[in-house]
Amino acid sequence: MKLLRDQLGVKVFPLHRLDRATSGSLLFALDREMAIKMNSSFVEGQVSKRYLAVLRGYTEEKGRIDHPLEKLWDRMTDSKADRTIKPQNATTDFRRLGTAELPFAVGRYSTARYSLVEARPLTGRNHQIRRHFKHISHPIIGDTSHGDGKHNLFFREHLHCRRMLLHASRISFFHPHLQEEIVIESALEGDFLDLLQNLRIPIKPAQLS
Length: 209
Fold this sequence. Notes:
Elements: H1 2-8, E1 13-14, E2 23-24, E3 28-29, H2 32-43, E4 48-56, E5 62-66, E6 91-102, E7 112-121, H3 128-135, H4 149-158, E8 166-174, E9 181-185, H5 190-199
């Protein structure tokens, strides 16, 4: 927030958040009125977000993960919160964009298989995409909280990848003042894109935005 404020010379208001290890698009408002209106849009499910992720194993071609998630508590800010809250409804749609198979034994199998997927969360729970893919036994590569340690280590040592492979690629919403849909795309680049090329996952360039 401080970096963006200094660049623009005005106060900024974060509208949502990304996990520290996630790259991609992040929205801010430039005044409190817009922040309040956009926060309502997020709460009412009027903002669409799409992510790209590399997962362990071959996923189905497409699917929906409808699995309630317990609230993640912050040790500092939630120390006095009521922790009897029931798990919250959470839904994530996904489609597989490509696959890769490497001739290395990671774990119990003779080869290592991976999928590139596009994920679209229909709700906004903490770590939702990461926890949902763990739930279906296809954790995100590089996720140190909900992932697979053996595959994370393999990517660090053999593919020189030290990041979580989750990228916020597209966000769309209806602008309260302009009265039109706004679509923001964040194309893959840098280490994430280099990794996909090393894995030789056959995908179309349009799928990377």
